[in-house]
Design goal:
By secondary structure, this protein is an alpha/beta fold. It is built from twelve helices and 18 strands.
């Protein structure tokens, strides 16, 4: 038999989370962001749960082609645009929308000379300082794009650096308004945090990412507790061993955990080779949470390649074969990430290919419930 670890991708949760986005931004159209293979959930697995979206946003041409092969006929946005002139014919062939964020991409468009007008999203750098034309350059870039016969509609696009923090977005909104003043065209500004907490930035299109998968933009599960978002990925395993410890006994590599009392620990078939973070804390004040038979307990010791250990004190009846939830329903992935010094995004994307993954499918009843039928 295979190891008892497995993941489940919940299509009903994806559909629910898309509906949460629509409730928060009722007047905007939605780019469902499925970059990084749908944040580790798998585009093939996630597609049915998200196909009520208005468009999909991603990075890779191969993933865009996959969406077309799955039957998607609506808009697809390349969030980083393209990387060489040879990409442009594929963009035209598969009817993609592309971001344009630099002078080099404009030149590549000119060199490629696509036959039909391509819809673009012209990216403005309002302070994130990754991609995009700086405000002083933006109007000239827009004028140049408008003169290209191969360019169709132009949407104004930016990305927020602090929509999930106290600094907020006012400084970037001001930069956006100044740079785009009197320029025609729709606007696409809002990431997940702005969808939830900055309605003034919703405009024509929103681009939710992590909230579609039930994660928090801040990394704190409490910040989304009242939103109705549901986890779209759960990771499960079982106890494969039990040990009785005496005071002074240590656990795992480096003996990072020392028992201060008689206790039982359980050994779980899950480790960093499965995508569970090696740096998850199993000692000290902040230990990573785990559910054993539905009861919340904590990691003890260092995570190994294929195993981790948990405190069975709250679970006295636990034994070999008892089910374990590493994250998912009842245990927010953000709580595990917080105890690991990272964010839920990383854990989603790090799920290892060796973990068997199944899909909880979207039924007719699920669809009716989500859409209020």
């Amino acid at each position: 038999m295979p190891r008892p670890i497995h993941a489940v991708i919940h299509q009903p949760a994806l559909a629910n989370n898309l509906e949460v986005v629509r409730r928060h931004a009722p007047d905007a159209r939605v780019w469902a962001v499925v970059k990084a293979n749908a944040y580790g959930h798998g585009i093939r697995r996630a597609f049915a749960g998200l196909k009520a979206t208005d468009g999909f946003g991603l990075l890779d041409l191969d993933e865009a082609v996959l969406l077309r092969e799955l039957g998607w006929q609506g808009p697809i946005l390349l969030l980083e645009g393209f990387f060489q002139p040879q990409d442009v014919p594929l963009i035209e062939q598969y009817r993609l929308t592309t971001a344009i964020h630099c002078e080099e991409q404009l030149r590549m468009l000119e060199l490629a000379r696509p036959k039909g007008p391509l819809p673009i999203q012209l990216k403005l750098n309002t302070g994130m300082n990754r991609l995009g034309f700086r405000p002083a350059q933006y109007r000239a870039a827009w004028e140049r794009a408008r003169t290209l016969s191969c360019v169709g509609s132009i949407v104004h696009m930016t990305h927020f650096s602090d929509a999930d923090s106290p600094r907020g977005i006012a400084h970037q909104i001001q930069a956006f308004e100044t740079a785009t003043a009197n320029l025609p065209g729709e606007a696409s500004l809002s990431n997940s945090a702005a969808v939830l907490w900055h309605p003034s930035a919703h405009r024509n299109w929103v681009r939710p990412g992590v909230i579609l998968y039930g994660g928090s933009p801040t990394g704190l599960s409490a910040d989304i507790a009242e939103t109705g978002l549901q986890p779209a990925m759960s990771l499960h395993s079982e106890l494969i061993g039990v040990q009785d410890l005496q005071p002074g006994d240590t656990v795992g590599y480096g003996s990072m955990y020392t028992a201060d009392r008689p206790m039982r620990i359980g050994v779980v078939a899950c480790g960093y080779a499965d995508g569970y973070p090696r740096h998850a804390a199993g000692w000290g004040e902040r230990r990573a949470p785990v559910l054993v038979d539905g009861v919340r307990t904590e990691l003890v010791g260092r995570v190994s390649m294929d195993m981790l250990c948990v405190d069975l004190t709250p679970c006295p009846k636990a034994r070999v074969g008892t089910p374990v939830t590493l994250w998912g329903h009842g245990l927010p992935i953000d709580d595990v990430a917080a105890a690991s010094g990272t964010v839920g995004y990383e854990l989603m994307c790090a799920l290892a290919p060796r973990v068997p993954t199944t899909v909880a499918t979207l039924t007719t009843a699920d669809s009716a419930a989500v859409h209020g039928a």
